[in-house]
Amino acid sequence: MESNKIRQAFLDFFAGKDHVIVPSAPMVVKNDPTLMFTNAGMNQFKDIFLGNIPRPYPRAADTQKCLRVSGKHNDLEEVGHDTYHHTMFEMLGNWSFGDYFKKEAIGWAWELLTGVYGLDKSRMYATVFEGSPEDGVPFDQEAYDIWLQYLPADHIIRGNKHDNFWEMGDVGPCGPCSEIHYDLRDESEIAAVPGREMVNQGSPLVIEIWNLVFMQFNRKANGSLEPLAANCIDTGMGFERLCMILQGKKSNYDTDVFQPTIQRIAAMSGKTYGADEKCDVAMRVVADHLRAISFSIADGQLPSNVKAGYVIRRILRRAVRYGYTYLSFNEPFICRLMAGLVDQMGGQF
Ligand code: SER
Questions:
Q1: Structure confidence at residue 283 as a pLDDT band (50, 70, 90)
Q2: How many CB atoms lie within 10 A of CB 232?
Q3: CA 206, CA 284: separation in Å to the nearest integer?
Q4: What's the average model confidence in pLDDT over 289-308?
Q5: Taking 80 as the threshold, does the pLDDT of residue 109 lie above it?
Q6: What is the pTM assigned to this prediction?
Q7: Which residues does a 6 A CB cutoff place in the pocket of ligand 1?
Q8: Cα(345)–Cα(349) distance, rounded to whole angstroms?
Q9: What is d(CA 147, CA 153) in angstroms, rounded to the nearest whole number?
Q10: Rg for the chain (alpha carbons), in Å?
């Protein structure tokens, strides 16, 4: 399935469940002193979760441009070296603002992944929050019991606060979460080590694809948790990872999200993707950073020497450095990749 169709199938599925489809917020955040960039789909809904503004609709779904290069969620140094982290990525999300809760969120995630996308159930794992005495939050028995309707007990894993309690930052909306992981390894590897032992162990082939957050609290500056006025749902699915699975690839960069750009870089540099690891890393870095830089500029943040602008400048420099060092470029080249990116992503954004 082409990536543009994968995205559309997500939006259509939730539109069919009475969700309002909303546009992505800008990736650059100008009105929240706790954030420089959108790092999660829920950022644009933060004030609705906190009850600071009335909900405009009870349910919504979208694809959100996210950038994880600073603050609590920062993946920059991994990007290019592995096959599944990005600076900018799309997060597919569905939202309930005091409307539905765990049963529907889990049930619909299962229906979409297995029924619409046809994922292999035997390769799926769910994690649930083990609880945190220091925060006074118990084991998430409710989510566990719901998952038991879909998955065998040995595919449901208890996770700690690091993996299964999602927080936007040091303060703000948060809550226990349940992640869906997928095992992409070959049958022989699965026979040797079961997937449940590989979840959250850093394997590039046993990866989280969707995080279902049960938003129940506001983390205050003094570290305490205050219950939200209403229970909410915030889900985030990694679009590029979903495309990898549905396109039968083992790297996000082998999907139609990145390959057109990578092939352009290969043609421009006279190198072949897949022939040399150092060049491959460099091509992935450039293909990734092109998106981050272009969307940041389009959303209102130019590279500069301070604050958010400096973050973008560092990303730009990293791309240039890899291009000059490993791909033999010796004059500006990233700008020549823009037209292709616009062709590919302009329809949605
Ligand atoms: N907020 C959660 C995340 O970013 C789910 O959307 O993972």
A1: very high
A2: 26
A3: 20
A4: 96
A5: yes
A6: 0.96
A7: 40-42, 93, 166, 211, 213, 234-236
A8: 6
A9: 8
A10: 20
